Each structure stands twice: as C-alpha cells, then as structure tokens.
Amino acid sequence: MSDIEDYAAPLPNGGLDPSVSQAHEEFLRLVTVPVLINREKGVDVLGTGTLFEIDTKIFLVTAKHLFDGEEYAKVAIPASPNDRTIAYLNDNKLHLLGDQNSKELDICAIELRHAPLVEYVKRHWTCLTLDDTTTPASAGRFIVCGYPSSLSSHRKNGNDIDVVTKIIAFYTNRIPPPPNAERPVDDSIDIFLRHCEVNRSIDGEPIQSPRFQGVSGASIWETQSPPGSFWTPRGTLKVAGIQNANRYGEYLRATSWDCVAALLRQASAS
C-alpha cells in the first residue's frame, strides 16, 4: 500500500499549517515516553509508552509483550525528555487485564510508586488524564507516535553506553481486519490501521516508514475538531488505543481505548 492521499487530506482546522504541526509535535514529545532496557551491551529501546494521572496515581501505559522474556528489573524510562538519566521500573507495580475468557490482553499499566520517579515525571513529562482519551471512531484521521529502535543510536558516556532515541509521528486511517491478521480478531478489542512503506508525517511530508520494533505500546491518537474556537494540541488529539503489532507496509494492530480504560479503572481502584 503506497497510496497515502486518501488520509492525507487537510486537517479539520483547514490545512497543514506549520505552527499547528509544530504544536502537535511538541505536545506528542512531552507525552510519548521511550521504554528502555539496560542490556550488557548498553541501553536499547524496548518500546513506547504514555503517562496518565488518575486519582492522584501515575501510570505508564504500554504493551504487555514488551516484557516477555525480559528482566523487568532492567526496564527503565528517561527521567525527562532531555535527560540522560534513566529511572528503573522494578519498584513499581505492573497491572494486567484479562478478557472474559481470562486471557491477558496485550496491554499493561505500570503504577509508578517510587516517590523520586513520580516527582521527576510530574516535573518533566506531561501526564494525560481520561479526558485525553476517546472510543475510536470507525473512520477518521489517526496519528501514531513512537520510538523505533532502528532510528536510535548509541554514544559513549564515560564507562557507559547511552542510547539516543528518535521519535517519529505519522498519519494513518482505520481499515477492516486484514485477512492475514492473527486470529482471533475481536471488533470490541482490536483496531486495525493502514501502514504504508511511505507515510505522511504530521507536517504533511511523505516519510519512509522504519521497522516498527520499539513502537509497540505507543498510543494511537485520533485527531478531532477543537471543541470551541480556542485551538490547542491537547484539545484536538485524543488517545484511542495502544499499538501492539504490525505487518510492515500493510497494517498496524492496536487495542481499543475502551479496554485500556477498563485496565486503568481496575488499577486505580486497587
């Protein structure tokens, strides 16, 4: 699928204004968090997450499969968007959600309980609330934003090796469940979105899509018209799902926000 014109129409506010694109990009950078893993050779990108504050509790929402086969004690996030310091997640609680058949869904919420980490997150990142979310529309315009590991690089920092992450964001649209999607497919859980080898960036330019390792766990953002005459990025972007699988050049698969909301309600009440 290389035709990107059908979902590259002008934004609801009338066009791909550079100031609008820049505001969207800056907002997404403050709420989209690389999930890191400290391996023997150095720190690598494991996936992508989003921070939420619900009932005074802070949660990192991402895909559960990121932690399959990994040592949880070595998983971390940057202390701030521009900081080399990383904070490990092993002292924090991992919440999972099962469906009606007690099968765990590919989403998780990590409740940040370590006081210094919570303080850093509140000071340097932007935490979303349930007001920043929506049930995904059957049609419309969506943005995927994350940290592909193929775009990251490493640099020497004393005796350690730092990872330098690069964020990517592009437009897409919903598609019917592809015939080659892994079964089972549940319309109340699964969202499928177009994934082209060439996509449209949020500034309207075509970009070559990287391999998607590292983007798993990223939020799927639905673009909406502003609720009033006052435009803000936060008012026009709503989290509609969490990305957890892809077939390069064909489709992305995500878990609907309704499932994530159920997980967060369960986690915040515990």
Mind telling me which CATH architecture this is?
A: Beta Barrel
Task: Evaluate the radius of gyration.
Answer: 18 Å
In helices, the fraction of residues equals 10-25%
Spans of at least 5 consecutive residues whose pLDDT stays below 50 are 1-15
Our measurement of the CA-to-CA distance between the termini, rounded to an integer number of angstroms, reads 44 Å
CATH topology name: Thrombin, subunit H
Written overview of the protein:
The chain is α+β, with helices and mostly antiparallel strands and 270 residues long. It has one domain (5-269): Thrombin, subunit H (Beta Barrel). It is built from 4 helices and 17 strands. The protein has an 8-stranded antiparallel sheet with strand order 12-17-16-15-8-11-13-14. 37% of the residues are buried.
List the helices and strands and how they pair.
Layout: H1 18-31, E1 32-39, E2 42-54, E3 57-62, E4 75-78, E5 86-88, E6 93-98, E7 104-112, H2 115-124, E8 142-146, E9 153-157, E10 160-164, E11 168-172, E12 190-194, E13 198-201, E14 206-208, E15 219-223, H3 233-236, E16 237-247, E17 251-256, H4 257-269
Antiparallel strand pairs: 1-2, 1-4, 2-3, 3-7, 4-5, 6-7, 8-11, 8-15, 9-10, 11-13, 12-17, 13-14, 15-16, 16-17
